[in-house]
Amino acid sequence: MRNQVIFTVSAIGIALGMIGAYVWSIERPLQPPVFNPVSSPYSTAIYANGMIESEQQSGENINIFPEVSGPVVKMLVHEGQKVAAGTPLIVIDDSVQRATTEQLRAQSEAALVALQELKAEPRKETLEVNRAQVDLATSNLKASRDQYEKRLTSYQMDKRSISKDVVDTSKDAVGQAETALEVAQKQYDLTKAGAWKYDIENQSKQYEALKQSYRSASALLSKYTIKAPTDGVVLTVNASAGSFVSPQGAYDAYTQGNDPLIVMGTPQDNLEVRCFIDEILVSRLPSSDSIRAEMRIRGTDKKVPLEFVRVQPYVSPKIELSNQRTEKVDLRVLPVVFKFSKKDLASVYPGEQVDVFIGRK
Question: What Rg do the C-alpha atoms of the chain give, in angstroms?
Answer without folding.
Answer: 47
